[in-house]
Specification:
This is Pimeloyl-ACP methyl ester carboxylesterase. GO terms for molecular function: hydrolase activity. Pfam families: Abhydrolase_1, Abhydrolase_4. It is a single chain. It contains 22 helices and 12 strands. It is α/β, with parallel strands linked by helices. The chain has a domain of 253 residues: Rossmann fold. Strands 1-2-3-5-4-6-7-10-11-12 form a 10-stranded mixed beta sheet, with helices on both faces. Strands 8-9 form a two-stranded antiparallel sheet. A hairpin with a 2-residue loop joins β8 and β9.
Length: 516
């Protein structure tokens, strides 16, 4: 499964809301027992065809659209078109005895919120065993407001909400101004609809997809935010869950409020320390410092230099407000250490005025940042914010954030000023239309978590483990996010295979052996 770059990972597209139904009823499918006004949605006929994306179509993925209500409390009102995808099981399910291996559907979410999911079935199939691929139709979905599912685009002028306030109040005040501006733009363009982009409504969309595919139950594979969505689905529809895999989970108690972002600060500082310990023995190659303390000092010094005077990178400039965003991305995985060192060395040489070729990573990211609309990142962050801000409320007083930021500086000199500023949700006009689902159940689940995860920390993952009381935790001792994507060959692979194929969970929580 491909890795997303820093901007798509963070901002992980709603021109208009569809007003017609766009589907035909299927007379062959019996009406469901529940009478809640959603019968016509559950009974619609799905027409599979070629995907719009040529690479996706070439992978063997089929695509379709499913109609759902914008507001589940008013099913006769406006509707949305949800784009879904499918990689069919290698077994057609028509055999008898041992010949029949198809189990059902495996619905997926890549994370975000706001991560487009149509490509996930093809990508996930590359990581699952052939036996699992034979047993499931793997289903992808661009959730409401994202990708090909009535994408939202507030016309934002930036590509990520992570921006360092720097050393003074002026940088913080600029962050407040940007957050207010983003909130106002979204409110002006989508007045009266934004509260409907909640995780609870996305979970209801997932259940409509399950129903129209003719399945009594569904299995689930979710990464990052996809674990919140999977756990929410299991809480709302426990009788419809078959097998549930949660990879790199946040704490559902902290999801949606500022604690989720603030908890990223300490673990990202730890990732910087781990990188420094790796780079110090390689000082002769990268010249970043001969001791871990010297490497950290070099990185902190680079951030300060960029704050004082932006660093020229080709036709672009990198200032100290944006630089921590790149470090945030480079530190996510220990396997990026070489790139991390190359980028820091490149920036140091550029800051010293030495002739050098700009690092391709920097050029790629800065090109995207210079054109949020053209790159699609304005839409990406719009979809992400719509979900986050429909799910919860955040403190509205800027001074709350300033005090938190100031408290973080001593122990989080690089990431504290970047992860304690207000999100646009702090100034969102529309309040959530319903409370977040409290996760507290015994639905069986397999949970995978890395010991150093800079997005959803290990401690956050333990919060999900406590909330999903029927879960078994597989710990992978490494620095990464999304275990199945990034660490093939660990005991997590076998645990996923055993569970999805045979329904067998480990007898107790387990820890994989460190990679050789």
């Amino acid at each position: 499964m491909r890795k997303r770059n820093v901007l798509t990972a963070l901002t992980l597209t709603f021109a208009t809301v569809a007003t017609g139904t766009g589907f035909a009823a299927s007379p062959k499918k019996p009406a469901p027992a529940q009478q809640d006004g959603l019968e016509r949605f559950r009974e619609q006929k799905v027409v599979w065809g070629a995907c719009q994306d040529e690479k996706l179509a070439a992978s063997g993925t089929e695509c379709a659209r499913v109609t759902v209500p914008l507001d589940y409390r008013a099913p006769d009102g406006r509707t949305l078109q949800i784009a879904i995808s499918r990689i069919k099981a290698r077994d057609n399910g028509k055999g008898k005895g041992k010949a029949k291996t198809r189990r059902g559907i495996l619905q997926t979410n890549p994370g975000g919120p706001g991560g487009p999911g149509l490509s996930m079935p093809a990508e996930l199939r590359e990581r699952l065993s052939p036996e699992v691929a034979a047993a499931y139709d793997i289903i992808g979905m661009d959730h409401r407001g994202v990708g090909e599912s009535n994408p939202l685009d507030c016309g934002l002028a930036r590509t990520a909400w992570i921006r360092s306030a720097g050393n003074d109040r002026a940088g913080f005040d600029e962050n407040v101004r940007l957050a207010r501006q983003d909130a106002r733009k979204c409110a002006a363009k989508y007045s009266g609809t934004l509260a409907h982009y909640s995780t609870r409504n996305i979970a209801r969309d997932v259940d409509i997809v399950r129903a129209v595919l003719g399945e009594r139950r569904t299995s689930w594979f979710g990464q990052s935010y996809g674990t919140i969505l999977g756990a929410t689905y299991a809480q709302m529809f426990p009788e419809r869950v078959d097998r549930l895999v949660l990879d790199s989970a946040p704490d559902p108690v902290k999801y949606g409020d500022m604690r989720l972002a603030q908890d990223m600060g300490p673990v990202n500082e730890k990732a910087l320390d781990e990188f420094a310990a790796w780079a110090a023995p390689r000082h002769s190659r990268y010249r970043l410092g001969a001791t871990p303390a010297a490497v950290r000092s070099t990185v902190e010094g680079l951030v300060q230099r960029a704050m004082d005077e932006p660093v020229k990178v080709g036709p672009y400039r990198v200032d100290g407000h944006d630089l921590p965003l790149f470090l945030f991305d480079l530190g996510v995985d220990a396997q990026k250490n070489t790139q991390y060192a190359e980028v820091v060395r490149n920036l140091l040489d550029a800051a010293d005025g030495k002739a050098n070729t700009p690092h391709p990573y920097l050029l790629e990211q800065l090109k995207v940042m210079s054109d949020p609309a053209g790159s699609g990142m304005s839409a990406g962050i719009s979809g992400q914010l719509a979900v986050l801000c429909a799910d919860t409320t955040m403190p509205r007083d800027p001074e709350w954030y300033w005090r938190a930021l100031e408290r973080s500086r001593a122990e989080q000199p690089v990431f504290g000023p970047a992860l304690n500023g207000p999100l646009p949700c702090a100034f969102w006009k529309e309040r959530p239309s319903e409370k977040l689902t409290e996760i507290n159940n015994k639905v069986p689940a397999l949970q995978l978590q890395a010991t150093v995860d800079t997005r959803t920390s290990y401690e956050q993952g333990l919060g999900m483990h406590r909330a999903m009381r029927g879960s078994v935790l597989v710990t992978v001792p490494t620095r990464t996010h999304a275990v199945i994507v990034s660490r093939p060959g660990t005991c997590a692979d076998k645990a996923v295979d055993d569970y999805l194929l045979r329904g067998t969970l480990p007898a107790r929580d387990i820890t994989c052996k460190p990679a050789a």
